[in-house]
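A note on notation is needed here, since sequence and fold are reported together in a single record. The reader may check this reading against the record printed directly beneath this paragraph.
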Amino acid sequence: MPDKTEPTPTEVKIANQFIDALTTEWDPEDFTDTFQEKVEALIEAKAAGEAMENPSQPRSPPVWST
C-alpha cells in the first residue's frame, strides 16, 4: 500500500463540486415505507382475528418508494 497522501486542492475542489451537483432537498414525507405499511396491515389483520398467511418466500428488505 502506498503511503497516505493528502488530496490536492484541485481534487478537493472537484470533489466539492461533484457533491454540490448531486445534492438536492430531501423531504421524508415524499416517500412511503411500504414495509411498515405491510407490517401494520398484518398487525391489524391479526388483531381482527383474520387468518395469517405463511409466506413461502423469504421476506425482502424494506422498500422505499416515491
Summary: Residues 11 and 21 are 15 Å apart (CA to CA). Strands lie at 32-33, 64-65.
